Amino acid sequence: MASPTPSPTPSPTPSPTTAPLDPRELGRRHLSPVMARYFERTWSHGAGHRLYDTDGRAYLDFATGIATTILGHHHPRVDAAIHEQVDRLLHLMNGLGYTAPVSELAARLAGTLPAPLDSAFFGNSGAEAIEGALKLARRATGRTAIVAFEGGFHGRTYGALSVTSSSPNYRAGHGPLLPDVHLVPYPDAYHANGGDEAAATVDALAAFDRLLAILEPASVAAVLIEPELGEGGYVPAPPAFLAALRERCDRHGSLLIVDEVQTGYGRTGRMWGFEHAGIVPDVVCAAKGIANGLPLGAIVARRELHERWGVGAHGSTFGGNPVACAAALAVLDTIEADGLVANAAARGAQLETGLRALAERDARIGDVRGLGLMLGVELVRDRGSREPDGALGDTVIARCADEGLLLLTCGPAHNVVRWLAPLDVTAAEIDEGLAAFGRVLAAT
Ligand SMILES: Cc1ncc(COP(=O)(O)O)c(C=O)c1O
Predict the structure, then answer these.
(1) Neighbour-count burial for 420-444, b at 16+ CB within 10 Å, e otherwise
(2) Which of 107, 176, 274, 428 has its CA at 20 to 30 Å from residue 101's CA atom?
């Protein structure tokens, strides 16, 4: 009998592309450079509120994957729900029927929202949620105009990008974007009105009303806003401004879409950011933290609006994946059982007090602002001119990382240091973060 053909001996010197290179070296060769990176570190794993790099160094994670791992890493309740669902059913495509985690999550989400917001469509991301909400608005109203706000960030797909203006780099060279999209100033008290919120509200409303007069209000399908500007620099909208938008949308039959992708789920010390203004939007978009890191996004609106959108008008193969929805149910259980919205409010207040104390000693801190655990520290060359100091922002977060604290920047000039602690952060961890930040500022 012929002996079996020996399998080829592996080459003793692997080819350069298969060599066991450090993920950073491999990534630098083969990952698209289009993704900007805050850090050039290589990460190994996460546990609780710490991320670990491949050298075994621990970092207090106040970046949370940009407001996504809101319960930290490796959360036992979330991990157990994921494992249980993985063993039961990994994927369905919701067009095939119903599964318990998906339907239960839709019902539970409705329970976190005021009436009549009772029905959800699930996608995979924030951009998809915005994309779908814009489609819903146009089809349900039969109108085409969309009004959004300068400095807003809503995602990178064409529809979401068309309402995004937080950095010129995101839009440049990608046009033409969606037609009939109109951007008006966000009420930005610090940058436009010397810190006067009432004046910012009056000015931004005047600009909004001027646009409505030009557009003909009956052509406006939707007004889209973040309750606190996220990527654009952590600027909360004054409650009176959101209330005035609600009034105008009611008057003209336009839909008020609130982008809660970053502000939602307790981040601002309320379950939803719009609650600070006491309004009820027509459409709520959520994503990021809702499944603590698994891809999931939601468009929630009253049933009648979804019905006007129409059966089959929208869909998604992966959206509302049962594993992501099982994780999301565990996130909601944990937020409720552990009182995490109240914790976010309390720890946010502690952090704000600490940051304001630092601002008193350091004139490079032009402003400390935000809601709950969505706080930004604006770094400036001097308080008089309010000129942004982006180089300082970049240096500060790099040195904080060296100190074992992960913070990020935001704003068009990268000069706003943003704090995105997990919702279950402890008082001791907030103190630890403040101490590290204070040391870095003192040494920079
Ligand atoms: C307010 C807001 N909307 C939408 C998005 C887009 O979400 P995603 O990156 O999941 O598409 C983001 C992402 O940062 C966001 O902050």
Answers:
(1) bbbbbbeeebbebbbebbbebbeee
(2) 274
* Edge-to-edge strand ranges of the sheet holding 255-259: 119-123, 297-301, 283-286, 255-259, 220-225, 145-149, 181-184
**Ligand 1 centroid to residue 299 C-alpha, Å:** 13
The whole-number pLDDT of residue 294 equals 98
Please answer whether residues 269 and 345 qualify as being in contact, where contact means their C-beta atoms are separated by less than 8 angstroms.
yes
Residue numbers in the chain where pLDDT is lower than 70 = 1-19
Q: Please tell me the distance from the alpha carbon of residue 146 to that of residue 299, in angstroms, as a whole number.
A: 17
154 lines ligand 1 (CB under 6 A): yes
CB atoms within 10 A of CB 160: 28
Rounded to two decimals, the pTM is 0.95
- Cα distance between residue 109 and residue 106, in whole Å: 5
Q: Answer whether 230 contacts ligand 1 (Cβ < 6 A).
A: yes
Using most ligand atoms within 8 A of CB, pick from 161, 163, 258, 288 the residue to mutate for ligand 1: 288
CA of 152 to the centre of ligand 1 (A): 10
